[in-house]
Amino acid sequence: MTSEEGDSNAETRQSFSGQFEPGPVPPLTPVDKYGFIRSHPLSPPQEVSITRCQPFTERDREEERLRKWRKMIGVDGADWEQYVRRKPQVVKRRIRKGIPDCLRGLVWQLISGSRDLLLMNPGVYEQLVFYETSASELDIIRDISRTFPSHVFFQQRHGPGQISLYNVLKAYSVYDPDVGYVQGMGFLAGLLLLYMSEEDAFWLLVALLKGAVHAPMEGLYLVGLPLVQQYLFQFEQLVKEQLPRLGAHFEKEMINPSMYASQWFITVFSYSFPFPLALRIWDVFLYEGVKIIFKVGLALLKYCQDDLVNLPFEKLVHALRNFPEDALNPDTLLPMAYSMKVSNGLEELREEYIQMTKPLQQLNSPESNREPELTRQKQEEFLMC
After folding, report:
1. CB within 8 Å of 141: residues ≥ 6 apart
2. How far apart (Å, rounded) are the C-alpha atoms in residues 140 and 183?
3. How far apart are CA 242 and CA 257, in angstroms?
4. CB-count exposure of residue 135 (10 Å: 0-12, 13-18, 19+)
């Protein structure tokens, strides 16, 4: 690198840092084991430290589970692909039981395909962050404080966590200008940053949206939210098929999934669900794909349907946005979700949706130049559900 290039690099970094004047460091407050500020002095049972309070036999079980995972992964993931090929059902079963938290970041990169993307694109992330500009920068800055505001990593205004989140979102908006940036993406990036570096989080976001392993999910954030609309159609039909009594009640009360389920898909349950549950869902989501979102949604409705079928419209909408604590217990909800059969139905409904919307897609709307702003407004309305 020449001295001129070095000076340019330093100036770029200085200019970037200058956009952010760090606010005061938040006062020390009690946090749970994930780093979220506790709303009350005593933690819920699932957040109690294993090493301090749980029986020795349970600690021993956790250590044995961790040992099995380390053996399965190998040093820095060296044995992962071979193990998956040899014992795919063992891998699936263990992931469904939950990835050990200390290994979660590494395993997420391995199962998402993002590690390969990172190795194939050296220097790309730094280029996007420090040498490119984005039309979405002001929108990203505006929304940063709304992402996990109760987590210590993101609490300080323009502190390290918020700057990392800004960098990842800005980089992606430059990398994929068709998607750019919309608010829901912040929760995906924020969750990833709690388990990995900026660059690793960026490439995992790329792997998800561009479809490194599973079907691309960028349609969740494209103009018109096409994939959100498809998923909501599929989910509504699955409710009618698998929970007919509840489906009929929804129809009677004119309830549709856009009133309560949009943010499930846009943020993969990371927006308003308990963090331990969100993590367990993400474990499976990254390995098995988007079908787990449908399974969890159906399981939630099934668990609560005896109460939901007796509620009128206003109370029904409130209940669908505020599920009871017992319904959100991972050890109760996820086994129910795994038992839901959706794969064949999803594919059939996808084809039906494509045929149903094909005539609309061929129309050229004179209002198309206004869609990005309308889409952003929809996105924020969905996140308020």
Report:
1. 19, 166
2. 8
3. 15
4. exposed
Residue among 127, 126, 147 nearest 189 (CA): 147
Q: How far apart are CA 89 and CA 66, in angstroms?
A: 18
* Beta-bridge partners for 31: 37
CB half-sphere exposure, 370, CA atoms < 13 A = 4
pLDDT in tens, 167-177: 999 999 999 99
pLDDT at residue number 51: 46
Instruction: Specify whether the CB–CB gap between 140 and 181 falls below 8 A.
Output: yes
- Reading the block at residue 349, the tokens are 């409904």
Q: Are 366 and 214 in contact (CB under 8 A)?
A: no
Q: Quick one: angle between helices 291-308 and 226-242, nearest 10?
A: 50
- For the whole model, what pTM was predicted? 0.86
Residue 318's contacts (CB-CB under 8 Å, 6 or more residues apart) are: none
Q: What CA–CA distance (Å, rounded) separates 217 from 88?
A: 24
Give one DSSP letter per residue of 353-367, joined into a string.
HHHHHHHHHTSPPTT
DSSP state of 211: T
Question: Roughly how many angstroms between the first and final C-alpha of the chain, as a whole number?
Answer: 51
Q: CA distances (Å), 151 to each of 33, 147, 190, in order?
A: 11, 9, 10
Q: State the number of CA atoms in the 13 A half-sphere of 303 facing the CB.
A: 24
Look up tokens 């430290």; give the residue: 49
Distances (CA, A) of 51 to 56, 59, 60, 104: 9, 7, 10, 19
Paired tokens of 17: 């840092």
In tens, the pLDDT along 181-223 reads 998 999 999 999 999 999 999 999 999 999 999 999 999 999 8
Read off the pLDDT of residues 101-111 as tens digits, 9 standing for 90 and up: 999 999 999 99
Q: Which residue has the tokens 């009360």?
A: 253
- Residue 300 dihedral angles phi and psi, to the nearest 5°: -60, -50
Mean pLDDT, residues 251-279 taken together:
95
d(CA 106, CA 67): 15
